[in-house]
């Protein structure tokens, strides 16, 4: 069914409240993503309830939704207006028999886990931080350490309500408005503002993960270990981004399984542990020079040896396993006021070794610190602008500066030449060319935007930069 | 002991946080709003998070003539009643638009006072119950920037104070809450000083502790507000009137 007809057939909820005329000169504030680069001025508007959002947005152009602001680059920075969804934080229903949860888009992952883990439920897919929102997880179709088995977050979304640019909230699912639904998963907020969504939680017996750590001494061993983990519930690797030569690609592979209740009881563990209060916060204005090559080398060497000592399986609480960085609040300030970028690519499985080796080698030669280099296996390919494809994904943090950008431009070309692409939720700087080469469903996505009347209406700094 | 809470002003963010704290403790929740449809998301939230038993009711705080019949129609007399109804209004507009000023005064003072006064009668007859009014520090001293709202809250604060005094020996507890700044729909878009600004959940906890715990008669949610208001209260009028506040 063509999208227009589908839209016409959808029940249109009545609009509330008279149009609010946007101010001629809105109050602008500088905003950025998690990486602090780039920074741009935008009007900040706070939603207060799903039903008043249409009136709030009426007459505004260049609008984009913003959840937890954990996208690294400019995806959640409105071209003119950024809509904060924090107040859309109500849970609308939960059925313990099926694990089906319906919640508003501004509900955070932290809230979901805090509320439902004690009852034995956990989301099927989680990213590496809990400070994201439901809307953000859907709009980026986030992947976890289990994409090879469960697909992206979007695969577990059954339905959502989308506020399209015409101001009408539309119910979307695989049956109703199926194209709009599919393109909204991973659609980076560019098809509309998600108001709420229905998705599944999985039953778990405990909040503990049985983790097994293995050492991979070089890249070949690393890829081999990740392939062997195809049957693991969770699998992720940390790479020593500074190792070169024969040690290139060395690192640790973490395999994880949900721990049974019996195992935890036998170990004398509290079945559903709470994270520590985590009061450690990096203060504003932290000097970036503390993160230099020497400190990162020392950090990585320490990490590598400690992991090498580990070996046998251990019980790890959910928060340290899934969200290790959340223990240090505002760690993005470590990079100082100029900010940093995260480069995350995916390359198809066949031939991945050569591309990854080249990336790792060139980054190591650059000599700037990348304390975080994470490698994961991804499974099935999503639709629209969804990032994952069958292959390997590598993520590296680098300081935002000219040398980084020059290197990354070259690496981007290498990635797309190999049939890969870059993750929009992390992107702050790729060119239109690499974007267009990486996302074959882009023409269909553009068509849908045209039909929705989204051009110019829904726009982020990212969409403007990439010519979406 | 878990009982039944009646929350009046169920679409309020502060009110919702109060109801959440009670639901967490296992209370049954009655939610009253002038437009119950808009309170549905709050009712759902309480049911989904805490498996609370929740019912939605319709009540307009300006329809004072209906109060007695409305209270009689409740499934049971609640154990605790919290009134979160309020309207900030627009001070500048209220200066010339009498209808607007009257609405603000009635919404903050008349409606809540008459309703809670009537509840107090029934609680006194039963010999138990807690009554909580969400008033405001704005009622402690009138300021040029919001004295129409402040006057309404001042009236409400005085009413609650008198009620508390009268019922002190009757087993009925009366609590006045002055939340200070709270991050809600009412204050969205205003620049608020972080140290003086509470999250709705802090108000929820403070209300529960005051009404169901060891008690508190006048609650400033963040303690520094007591100091701030003491300072503001101590400024001599000849000086105060010249300040831009
Ligand atoms: C430490 C860290 C670890 C991470 N680990 C992973 C990982 O393992 N896997 C992974 O996939 N990602 C990961 N990410 C990225 C993160 O999961 C995504 O960027 C996610 O989209 C952030 O959600 P958010 O609520 O913060 O969204 P924001 O950053 O606010 O927005 C991200 C995008 O979602 C859109 N959006 C947000 N809310 C809505 C809405 N209601 N309706 C429509 N569009 C909306 C925005 O417009 C924007 O395009 C990580 C990020 C950090 C900081
Ligand atoms: N936020 C602050 O900083 C702050 C500070 C001090 C005191 N307070 C007080 O705290 C209380 C709750 O405020 P809030 O911050 O949560 O803001 P809010 O969301 O605007 O709450 C106001 C509530 O009053 C209700 N109301 C208004 N007129 C009504 C009527 N005629 N009949 C029934 N209900 C009516 C509103 O219902 P509708 O949704 O139908 O409009 C809403 O539920 C208020 O009394 C406010 O004055 C707030």
TrEMBL record, chain B:
Q: Quick check: keyword Lipid metabolism in the entry?
A: no
Superkingdom is: Bacteria
Q: Which GO cellular component does the record give, naming just one?
A: membrane
What keyword terms does UniProt attach to this protein?
A: Oxidoreductase
Molecular function per GO = oxidoreductase activity
What the entry lists under Pfam families is as follows:
adh_short (PF00106)
| Name of this chain's protein | Short-chain dehydrogenase
Please give the organism.
Methylorubrum thiocyanatum
């Amino acid at each position: 069914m063509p999208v227009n007809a589908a839209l016409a057939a959808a029940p249109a909820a009545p609009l509330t409240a008279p149009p609010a005329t946007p101010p001629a000169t809105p109050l602008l504030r500088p905003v950025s993503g998690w990486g602090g680069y780039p920074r741009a001025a935008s009007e900040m508007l706070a939603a207060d309830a799903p039903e008043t959002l249409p009136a709030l947005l009426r007459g505004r152009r260049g609008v984009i939704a913003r959840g937890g602001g954990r996208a690294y680059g400019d995806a959640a920075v409105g071209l003119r207006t950024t809509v904060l969804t924090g107040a859309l934080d109500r849970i609308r229903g939960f059925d313990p028999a099926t694990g089906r949860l319906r919640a508003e888009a501004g509900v955070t992952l932290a809230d979901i886990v805090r509320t439902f883990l004690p009852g034995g439920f956990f989301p099927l897919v989680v990213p590496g931080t809990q400070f994201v929102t439901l809307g953000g997880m859907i709009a980026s179709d986030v992947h976890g350490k289990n994409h090879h088995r469960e697909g992206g977050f979007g695969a577990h979304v059954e339905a959502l309500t989308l506020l399209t640019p015409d101001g009408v909230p539309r119910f979307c699912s695989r049956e109703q408005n199926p194209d709009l639904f599919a393109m909204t998963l991973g659609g980076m907020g560019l098809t509309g503002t998600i108001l709420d969504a229905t998705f599944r939680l999985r039953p778990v017996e405990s909040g503990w993960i049985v983790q097994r750590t293995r050492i991979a001494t070089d890249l070949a061993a690393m890829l081999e270990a990740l392939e062997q983990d195809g049957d693991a519930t969770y699998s992720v690797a940390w790479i020593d981004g500074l190792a070169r030569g024969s040690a290139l690609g060395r690192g640790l592979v973490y395999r994880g399984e949900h721990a049974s209740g019996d195992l935890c009881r036998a170990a004398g563990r509290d079945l559903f542990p709470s994270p520590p209060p985590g009061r450690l916060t990096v203060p504003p204005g932290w000097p970036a020079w503390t993160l230099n090559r020497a400190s990162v080398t020392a950090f990585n060497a320490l990490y590598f040896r400690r992991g090498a000592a580990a070996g046998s399986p251990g019980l790890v609480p959910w928060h340290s396993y899934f969200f290790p960085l959340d223990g240090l609040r505002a760690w993005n300030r470590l990079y100082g006021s100029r900010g940093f970028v995260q480069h995350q690519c995916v390359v198809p499985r066949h031939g991945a070794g050569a591309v990854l080796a080249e990336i790792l080698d060139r980054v190591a030669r650059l000599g700037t610190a990348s304390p975080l280099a994470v490698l994961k296996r991804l499974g099935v390919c999503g639709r629209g602008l969804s990032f994952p494809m069958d292959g390997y994904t590598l993520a590296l943090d680098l300081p935002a500066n000219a040398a980084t950008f020059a290197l990354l431009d070259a690496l981007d070309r290498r990635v797309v030449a190999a049939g890969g692409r870059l993750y929009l939720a992390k992107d702050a700087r790729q060119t239109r060319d690499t974007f267009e080469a990486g996302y074959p469903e882009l023409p269909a996505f553009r068509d849908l935007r045209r039909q929705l009347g989204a051009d110019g209406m829904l726009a982020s700094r990212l969409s403007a930069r990439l010519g979406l | 002991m878990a009982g039944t809470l009646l929350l009046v002003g169920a679409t309020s963010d502060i009110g919702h946080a109060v109801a959440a704290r009670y639901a967490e403790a296992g209370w049954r929740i009655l939610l009253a709003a002038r437009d119950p449809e808009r309170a549905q998301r709050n009712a759902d939230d309480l049911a989904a998070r805490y498996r609370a038993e929740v019912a939605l009711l319709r009540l307009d705080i300006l329809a004072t003539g209906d109060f007695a019949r409305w209270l009689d129609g409740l499934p049971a007399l609640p154990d605790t009643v919290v009134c979160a109804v309020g309207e900030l209004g627009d001070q500048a507009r209220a200066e010339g638009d009498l209808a607007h000023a009257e609405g603000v005064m009635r919404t903050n003072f008349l409606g809540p006072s008459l309703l809670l006064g009537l509840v107090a009668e029934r609680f006194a007859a039963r010999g138990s119950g807690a009554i909580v009014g969400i008033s405001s520090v704005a009622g402690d001293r009138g300021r040029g920037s919001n004295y129409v709202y402040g006057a309404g809250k001042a009236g409400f604060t005085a009413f609650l104070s008198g009620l508390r005094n009268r019922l002190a020996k009757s087993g009925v507890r009366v609590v006045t809450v002055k939340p200070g700044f709270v991050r809600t729909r009412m204050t969205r878009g205003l620049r608020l000083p972080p140290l003086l600004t509470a999250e709705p959940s802090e108000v929820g906890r403070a209300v529960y502790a005051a009404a169901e715990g060891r008690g508190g008669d006048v609650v400033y949610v963040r303690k520094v507000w007591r100091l701030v208001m003491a300072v503001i209260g101590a400024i001599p009028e000849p000086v105060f009137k010249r300040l831009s506040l």
